[in-house]
Amino acid sequence: TSLSTPKKKKRDDGMREHVTGCARSEGYYKIDKKDKLKYLNNSRAFAEEPPADTQVRNPLLRATRSEQRRLLSSFTGSCDSDLLKFNQLKFRKKKLKFCKSHIHDWGLFAMEPIAADEMVIEYVGQNIRQVIADMREKRYEDEGIGSSYMFRVDHDTIIDATKCGNFARFINHSCNPNCYAKVITVESQKKIVIYSKQHINVNEEITYDYKFPIEDVKIPCLCGSENCRGTLN
Fold this sequence. Notes:
- This protein is of the alpha+beta class.
- The protein is 27% helix and 22% strand.
- The protein contains four helices and 13 strands.
- The strands form four sheets. The protein has a four-stranded antiparallel beta sheet.
- InterPro entries: COMPASS_Set1_N-SET, Post-SET_dom, Set1-like, SET_dom, SET_dom_sf, SET_SETD1A/B.
- It comes from Formicarius rufipectus.
- Residues 94-211 form the SET domain.
- Residues 217-233 form the Post-SET domain.
């Protein structure tokens, strides 16, 4: 029996149309030089055309670069390494968690290794004046809130993270801490950032020295370190 082979058709783009639906089932055949050149030109034009998702991402990338340039121009009172670390802290936050602590109540723990002299977390809260801080402290006592999370930035400004803050407020005091607090200035605004003093392992608790002023009424320290002072103040 002799079967008539169907005539090969060409598609609108000039490429050969496969009758069986698969080029491998039709054996080896040559492609004309004209068709090959046309195919290469189409492929080259497609490669030079930017993909659709890049056009969507470009504004986001431009916004990120603009944000970094804005931070660079507004960063004062600190070295370039502080700017770099603050950028890293802003766009790539450390993995941290809070859970029960053997020091006191809740504590903050590292979920990833943290190298020495790295920004761990920013202490976030409401910036208030000393007068407001005194009023809130009395109100918190009347409401039965045992712990108030206030951090002094300078003589005039205090950050209150009692009802509006982040995980940084759970960091406990230690007389032999693995972190320390530092005040940096970004966009003419002072910020408190927690730095690592040494390498911190996974599941290790984040601690720093509260440096409370010396007072007659002592607050007992439960850090349990070898050089524990016995009191926070």
